[in-house]
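The authors assume throughout that readers already know how a fold can be written as discrete tokens. Each protein is reduced to its one-letter sequence and a matching series of backbone shape codes. I therefore recommend that a typical entry be quoted early in the introduction. For illustration, here is how one protein appears when written out as sequence plus structure tokens:
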Amino acid sequence: MNKKRSRLRRARRTRARIAGQGMHRLCVHRTSRHIYAQIISADGARVLASASTLDSEVKQSVGYGGNLSAARLVGQVVAERALKAGVEQVAFDRSGFRYHGRVRVLAEEAREKGLKF
């Protein structure tokens, strides 16, 4: 089994567990150059809030999107947008990535800005 298939298998298992809880989820995806975060509704049909290093507001503040400072800023922005949309409680979906580095920094910043998970 290759790395991507293993990661997607872990992600599928986590998403099944979150779907059973019936909660909104904070879904994080990362590539070597960018990081993306979305708040997805409990039924999985709508994206309630999103932020990434490709957003104009974030892109101006951060030169390169594949580092910790970019992840920190994306975590802050997605938390602010989620709270504005009325979402306070979410389940963290790390998409099979390790809770380490940029994924961890994004989660910690979102918690500091007021998201509960």
